[in-house]
Amino acid sequence: MPTLRFIGHSAFILEGEGNVVAIDPFITGNPTATISADEINPTTILLTHAHNDHVGDSVELSKRTKAPIIATFELATYLSSKGAETIGANHGGTVKFAGGSVKLTPAWHTSSYQEGDTFVAPGVPAGMIVTFAEKKFYFAGDTCLFLDMQLIGEEGIDVAVLPIGDHFTMGPADAIRAAKFLRPRVVIPCHYNTFPAIEQDTDEFKKKLEEETSAKAVILQPGEIWEVAEPTMTAADG
Ligand code: ZN
C-alpha cells in the first residue's frame, strides 16, 4: 500500500515497494517541516517549477542519493549545472521512473530560481500526473484555476493535491471549482499556512468541498503519513 507523507507547504513523499518519490522537497528553511532533509532518501525527485519554495533541497538530495530530478527542460538543465542528476521533460511528455511515471501538464504560474538578487533557471511551470502503485495522483503545483483541468480529470485522478493558499496560487473557492473539473476521489490541500500571506481555514475548505463535490478532503498535518488505498476506496463517488 503506497503512502503519502506531507512534509509541509507543497512538499510530499510518495513511498511504496522500496521506491521513495520526493515532490517539491522544500525542507530546509520550511517553517512547517518536522523533519530534516538528511532524514529522507529519495529514489526520484519531481519538481513542478523553479521557485525556491519548491526546488528546496533537491540538488543536495540528488547529489547524496543519485536520485534523478525530473523537471521541465530549462530547470533540469540549470540543476544539472549544480551537480544534480536530472531528466528534462516538458508538457504532455511522460517519463518513467523507479516505481512509476510522471506526465507533465500545464500550470498557470511563473517559474524562476532566485540566487541573491538574480533570477535564474528560466522556463515554465508544470503540474504533474503521477502514476504510482496503481494510483493516479495529480500534483497541480502552483497554479490558478484553468479550464483544461477537465482534460486532466479525464485521465481518472484518484488523488488531487491542490494549492489553496490564495495570493500566489488559487484559493479555496477556486480549488473547489478545480475539483469539479478534475473529479478526483480525494483532494489534499497544500501551499497554505506556511507564511502569513497564505493562511487558510482547512475545516471550512473540507466542509465546502464535501458539500459541493463528491470528493473527500484529506487534511494532512506536516509530518503526517497517509495510507493511500483505504480512504481512496471508501471515498468512491460518495
Ligand atoms: Zn511558485
The helix count comes to 7
Domain tally: 1
- What would you call the structural class? alpha/beta
**Overall morphology:** globular
Give Rg in angstroms: 16 Å
| Fourth CATH level, the homologous superfamily | Ribonuclease Z/Hydroxyacylglutathione hydrolase-like
Distance between the termini: 22 Å
In short:
This protein has seven helices and 16 strands. With 238 residues, the chain is α/β, with parallel strands linked by helices.
Structural commentary:
With 238 residues, the chain is of the alpha/beta class. Helix content is 23%, strand content 30%. The protein has one domain: Ribonuclease Z/Hydroxyacylglutathione hydrolase-like (Metallo-beta-lactamase, Chain A). Helix 5 (172-182) packs parallel to helix 6. The radius of gyration is 16 Å and the shape is globular. 47% of the residues are buried. The model is unreliable at 231-238 (pLDDT under 50). It binds zinc ion. Zinc ion (ZN) is lined by residues 49, 51, 54, 109, 142. Zinc ion (ZN) binds next to loops.
List the helices and strands and how they pair.
Blueprint: E1 3-8, E2 11-16, E3 19-23, E4 44-46, H1 52-55, H2 58-65, E5 69-72, H3 73-81, E6 86-89, E7 94-97, E8 100-106, E9 113-115, E10 118-120, E11 126-132, E12 135-139, H4 149-153, E13 159-163, H5 172-182, E14 186-190, H6 202-212, E15 216-217, E16 225-227, H7 229-234
Parallel strand pairs: 3-4, 4-5, 5-6, 12-13, 13-14, 14-15
Antiparallel strand pairs: 1-2, 1-16, 2-3, 7-8, 8-11, 9-10, 11-12
Helix pairs in contact: 5-6
